[in-house]
Specification:
With 324 residues, the protein is an alpha/beta fold. It contains 12 helices and 10 strands. It is 47% helix and 12% strand. The strands form 2 sheets. It has a 6-stranded mixed β-sheet. The protein has a 4-stranded mixed β-sheet with strand order 1-2-9-3, with helices on both faces. Strand 5, helix 5 and strand 6 form a beta-alpha-beta unit. It is globular, with a radius of gyration of 19 Å. The mean pLDDT is 96.
Length: 324
């Protein structure tokens, strides 16, 4: 298994290790998965080609990294102002999303599986305050996927960098801001040492699905019971990662604020409103790529519409009830 994450990086790298361990144990040793961090065998953003080409059997990353291969793959990772982790899992497992994901990856000779989720992320670390839309203009920010295009239309400059390069890039001024994940991972990278302001809410990644993708030929060589073990191990890893992030973010946020005096800031309503409008434009445009992209977009959008109606009178209503 090759990954886009630094070896054993908390949450993401360890999530890949957890998945490998589950497959090794559940298969009774009939499968042995060895995990390689970003750069150990191939660079972080070349793992898709490595697995598709058969030089590795499995990869661990997130689908928005492969937008250059096929733009609509981003729906299987996250969309700005889109579905939460709970909604994504519901769409994938019970709303037809997984079948479309499999269809999209089949053209590359890959079998996809959800294998983690970060939950709602933070908007990121900034070297200066964001008080208006003007503060986004000319801003060089590490931000991947559809959100990068949204920032571009708002006047900023999106930069796509792997996690291992973020600290030095922010420290040197190569970028002015970066999003990564949330308190748990951001504390581990030490962003509080080089950036003053930590912004929320994570409009750009409300529930980012992490993936395991498997070389289709290698997968089909396995007997049915081992195929089932691999896919069910992914489901276990998917659930476990989200639970870990929620638990670890609680403690990490407390450390960042109380021990490192991080300045938490909420993005202004003007900024959020504009980013929301631009996000809708960018997401809708993905549907025009081809017939499959339209099919994915329609499935995602229809599920999201129904989900919002229910969650407004369930999760949202309850969270408002217990506010404070």
């Amino acid at each position: 298994m090759v990954t886009t994450w630094p070896k054993n990086f908390p949450g993401l790298g360890t999530g890949a290790e957890f998945l490998a361990e589950q497959i090794n144990v559940m298969s009774g040793g009939r499968i042995h998965v060895e995990v390689y961090g970003a750069g150990e065998l191939v660079p972080a953003f070349e793992i898709f080609d490595a697995v598709a080409g058969g030089s590795a059997q499995m990869g661990h990353g997130s689908a928005y990294y492969w937008k250059g291969k096929y733009p609509a793959l981003q729906f299987f990772s996250t969309t700005p102002f889109g579905m939460t982790a709970m909604e994504m899992n519901s769409w994938l497992y019970h709303g037809g999303g997984m079948q479309l994901w499999q269809k999209a990856y089949e053209q590359f000779g890959l079998v996809p599986a959800a294998s983690g989720n970060t939950g709602v992320q933070m908007a990121g670390w900034f070297n200066k305050e964001v008080n208006s839309l003007e503060d986004l203009k000319g801003l060089k920010m590490r931000i991947p996927g559809l959100a990068g295009e949204v920032l571009k239309r708002a006047g900023g400059t999106p930069v796509n960098l792997p996690g291992g390069e973020l600290f030095t890039s922010l420290q040197s001024g190569t970028i002015d801001a970066t999003e990564w994940v949330g308190p748990y991972n951001d504390l581990a990278f030490g962003f509080h040492k080089i950036a003053r302001y930590y912004y929320y809410p994570g409009w750009h990644e409300p529930g980012t699905t992490l993936e395991c993708f498997i070389n289709k030929a290698a997968f089909e060589e396995l007997p049915e019971d081992l195929q089932s073990i691999v896919l069910n191990a992914c489901r276990v890893a998917n659930q476990d990662m989200l639970a870990e992030y929620i638990a670890r973010n609680n403690d990490a946020l407390e450390t960042l604020v109380n021990e490192h005096n991080v300045k938490l800031r909420e993005l202004p309503a003007e900024v959020i409103d504009t980013l929301g409008k631009l996000s809708e434009e960018v997401t809708v445009e993905l549907a025009s790529v081809d017939a499959l992209a339209r099919e994915i977009f329609d499935s995602y959008s229809n599920f999201f519409k129904k989900s919002r109606a229910w969650l407004n009178i369930s999760e949202r209503a309850y969270l408002n009830l217990r506010a404070g």
